[in-house]
Amino acid sequence: MYRFPVEHVYLVDTVSSDPRAHRRALRLAGALGVPSPEAITLERSLELRHNRQASRPGTYPRRTGEFDYSRGWTVVLDTYCEGERFVDRVPRATYRDGRRQMGGEGVCRSALEFHGAFGCYHRCAYCFVDPYFLIACDLETLAERMPEYMARYPTQKLWKFDALTDTIVLEPEYGASELLVPLFAGLEDRHLLLYTKSDNVDHLLPLDHGGHTIINWSLSPRTQSREIEINAPDTYQRIAAMKKCQDAGYTVRVRVSPVVPLQGWREEFVEMADALFSAVQPDVITIDVVGWCLPEALDAAMDISRLEPEFAAEVRAGLGVSNRKAEKYLFSHELRASALRHVAATLKKRSPETPVAVCNETRAMWAALGDILQMHPSNYVCCCGPDCVPGHEMLRKQGANLPSSPSGSSG
Which residues have C-beta within 8 Å of that of residue 105, sequence separation ≥ 6? Predict the structure, then answer.
C-alpha cells in the first residue's frame, strides 16, 4: 500500500456489524499509521460528505495549491450496506450509458461498473478529486451479489473495477484484488478490468487469475507523468509494472488518457511509445485528449503557457465566455484531431497489429482518423467496452504477438 500522510481516519459505526469489513478497516487504518481510527456515527459521516461537497465549486480541476496537501488526506472507512440493504453513500455500481453520456454526439459503449471507493492519492492537476478517501470495507457483500448483477446483464463480458479511484494504491491491505481476481478466474466468460496509474503491483503477481483479469494503465509522457500527475509513478515506472504483470500472464492494456498537450509532448510521446513496445505488448490502446471541463478549470489547474501555443490560445479565448457548460470537448475538433493523429500514427508505426481506438469521441473524429484506426464507431474494440475481452474478433490476431504465459498462468 502507498504510504501517504493522513489528517483524519474515521471508522463509521456500521463497519463493526460486519466482522470481515471490520478487519479490513483496521488493516487499512493500521497501514495508514492510525491503528485506532476515530469512531463516528453514520450521521457524522454523512455530514463530512456534505461539507466536502459543499466546499467544492464543482467537479473541475483546481490549482494544486488550493488544498493543503501537507496536512494529509481524510479517510472515511464505511460500508456499502446497512444490514442486508445497499445504501447510496458508498457507490457500489454505476451504469455508463453510452447513448446519453455524450449528448448523442460522441461514441461510447454502455456498461455497468463496480466501485470500491471514491478518492485518489495521485493528485493529477487536471482531476477534480481532493485529498479525501471514502472506502467501502464490506467487499465480500459486493462479491456475493455480483452473480445477481451479471444475470441482469448477460451480454456484458467485461466488468470494470474501479473508475472512481485507483484501488491498486490501497493494496494489498484493501484486499479487493485478492478477492475479485480469483473470483473472475472461475467464471467461464467474464473478465475483470482493473484500471490504474500505479506501480504497486507485486500483490497481483501470485494471484490465480486464470487469464480473466485485464490490467489497464493510464500512461502519459515523461513531463506530464512527473509534473502534472504529481504523486503518480512516472512513465517508465508504469511500464515496468506492466511488464511484471504481463510476465505473470495478465492481459495488459493502455489508455493514453488524457493527452495534455504540453510543449514538447509530441517528441516525448515518441520516446514513450518506444519504451512501451520494447517492454510489453498491450492487446489494445485507447486515446483521449484532456477535457470534461471549462477553460477556467484548466487555467486553474495548471500554467496554460506550458501548452502548445494553439492549445493555449483556445483556452485563453474561452475564458470568461458566459452561459457555457462544462463539456467533454475542451478543444476544437481540429486541435484534438492533430493530437490524436500524432498519437495513433506513432503507435501504429511501432505495432501495426495493435488496435487503437479513440475514447468518447465524435463520429466526425472517427471519420477523420479512419485511415489510421481502421475501425468504425459502430464496430470497434477499446479498453473497457462491455464485449472487449480476449477472444474478441478484433483482438484475436494480436495473440501471435503476445509473450508466452508463465507456467501455471494463462493470459
Answer: 362
Residue type, 188: E
Nearest to 254 by CA among 214, 216, 209, 295: 216
Measured distance CA(154)–CA(163) in Å, rounded? 21
C-alpha cell at position 25 = 478497516
What element of type H or E holds 12? strand 6-12
Nearest by Cα to 285 from 254, 258, 259, 257: 254
CA-CA distance, 322 to 29, in Å (whole number)?
Answer: 45
Q: How much of the chain is in helix, strand and coil states, percent to nearest 5?
A: 35, 20, 45
Instruction: Indicate the angle between helix axes 139-152 and 19-31, nearest 10 degrees.
Output: 120
Domains and CATH numbers, the chain: 88-116+141-401 (3.80.30.30)
pLDDT in tens, 238-273: 999 999 999 999 999 999 999 999 999 999 999 999
Predicted confidence (pLDDT) at residue 340 exceeds the cutoff of 50: yes
> Would you state the pLDDT for residue 402?
40
Grid look-up 493494496 returns 171
Tell me how crowded residue 354 is: count the other CB atoms within 10 A of its CB: 19
